[in-house]
Structure formats: C-alpha cells, structure tokens
Design brief:
The protein is an alpha+beta fold. Helices cover about 35% and strands about 10% of the residues. It has helices at about 35-45, 115-125, 145-155, 165, 175-185, 195-210, 220, 230-245, and strands at about 5-10, 20-25, 70, 75, 95-100, 110, 115. The longest helix is centred in the last third of the chain and has 15 residues, at about 195-210. The structure holds iron/sulfur cluster and FE2/S2 (inorganic) cluster. Its cofactor is [4Fe-4S] cluster; [2Fe-2S] cluster; [3Fe-4S] cluster.
Length: about 250
C-alpha cells in the first residue's frame, strides 16, 4: 500500500508544532500501525531526517503506552489499542492524519509523545489498598461474591491509556477513575479506604485540570478495553456517599 501521512511534529514541549506530510510506500496490510510508523522512521533516518517520536512498550495491548489520535479518533477506527490496530483497516492511497492525545493535562513532550503522569498522580492520591505485609493469606479467608469479583475483574482491565480523556470533549478522566474506583470498591479488600479514595482521586483529577463528565459517552466508545460507562455512575454514587458522611 502507498499512504500519505500527515503527522504532528513538535520539537519540544514549548515549541510550536505543525502537521508535516510524508509519502510512504511498501506498507503491508498485516503490519501493525506502529510497524508502519517504524517503516516511516527507517525511511526518515535514511534520508537524514529526525524520526517521529511516539510511545510504545508491550505492543500487545496491555501496557497502555501507545496513544495516538488517528484520523481524529483515539486509537483509530477499531476498538483496540494503537499497537493492535493493523493496516488492513486502511486502503491503498489513503491519507492518514496522526496527532498526539488532545488534552491539556497531557502536554506534548515531543511529536506524538505526551506526558501522562497526571494519571499516576491520581492513582497515588487513592488508587490503592492497604494490606499487611507477610505471607500470602489463605485465599478463602476473605470471600468475594462472584458477581462483584467478575465486575471488579472486568474493570481492572483498564490499562490507563488515556484514550477516554483524548476522546472526551471535556477532557474528563471520569471513565479511568470510575474503572479504578469500581475495581477496588467492589472487593472487600478495597473497603477500608473506599470513601477517602473517591474524594482524594476526584480532588487530584480536578487539580490536574481534567474536565467534568457531562454524560456524552465518547470515552466508553473509544476505550480499547470496553470499560462500561456505568463505572462513572458508581464513582458519583461513592462520591455522594462520602460527602454525605462529611469527607
Ligand atoms: S478507561 Fe479505557 S480508555 Fe480510559 S484509560 Fe482505561 S483503558 Fe484507556
Ligand atoms: S504498546 Fe502496550 S498497549 Fe500498545
């Protein structure tokens, strides 16, 4: 396949960025999107140009590092991560526009790489449980109802990629936070910090500059792990209970 790529290039966080256009030939349908960018970078290096900076790590859909707006959609046209998107989703002769995540709390570091440490600080604020150290406890000593365990497991699949934020017109991280709060709040081990967790995480979220949720639902549509929108209801319910209790 032959493609025209329009890519956001930005030297550093304070530089003014711009879209640059590249022609790329020899793209195989079975290549992943990131392998296609690798091919472009090989071409750029051979011609003495600076390769395009982009994030990736596992390339298996589990780490959440890859983060690109592709033709205006977070992670592109399929419900998957950018690294698991394949070029068979595109056609010969296509023009593809590639930009970094669009959200103020995720500032661009270089080209397509953004700083997502705001997510780390939200997790540090409350996305944890307290557990005594020592040997592993007997597994059946803290029973968890199956329906709650399954829901916790399903929402624990959130990989912290940030697509929900990039897709949201408000730049809200409510789906990400809702996934973490639901994951921990469904299990007995998550109960001791349940109410302080939601207050502290929401406080950090707002402090970082993420926007509020207005139930648009773009986040859930863009989420590669199909985290359901109702985790935001659970987040709001827990927040209301915490505030009623004076936290
Ligand atoms: S909720 Fe989905 S889109 Fe948001 S960070 Fe988690 S996996 Fe990514
Ligand atoms: S590189 Fe790890 S999820 Fe894409």
């Amino acid at each position: 396949m032959k493609l025209t790529l329009k890519i956001w290039r930005q030297e550093n966080p304070t530089a003014t960025g711009a879209i640059h256009t590249y022609e790329l030939d020899g793209v195989a349908k079975d290549m992943s999107f990131l392998e296609m960018l690798d091919l472009l970078n090989e071409q750029l290096v051979l011609t003495g140009e600076e390769p395009v900076a982009f994030d990736s790590d596992c390339r298996e859909g589990i780490c959440g590092m890859c983060s690109l707006m592709i033709n205006g959609e977070a992670h592109g046209p399929e419900v998957t991560t950018t690294c698991q998107l394949h070029m068979r989703s595109f056609n010969d002769g296509d023009t593809i526009t590639i930009e970094p995540w669009r959200a103020e709390p995720f500032p661009v570091l270089k080209d397509l790489v953004v700083d997502r440490s705001a997510f780390d600080r939200i997790i540090q604020a409350g996305g944890y449980i307290s557990a005594n150290t020592g040997s592993a406890p007997e597994a059946n000593s803290v029973p968890a109802p199956r329906d709650k365990a399954m829901r916790a497991f399903n929402v624990a699949t959130c990989i912290g990629c940030g697509a929900c934020v990039a897709a949201c017109p408000n730049g809200s991280a409510s789906l990400f936070m809702g996934a973490k709060i639901t994951h921990l709040g469904e299990l007995p081990q998550g109960q001791p910090e349940r109410w302080s967790r939601v207050v502290d995480m929401v406080g950090q979220h707002d402090h970082e500059g993420f926007g509020g949720c207005t139930n648009i639902g773009e986040c859930a549509s863009a989420c590669p792990k199909e985290i359901p929108l109702d985790v935001i209801s659970q987040l709001n319910k827990d927040l209301r209970t915490a505030m009623k209790n004076g936290l």
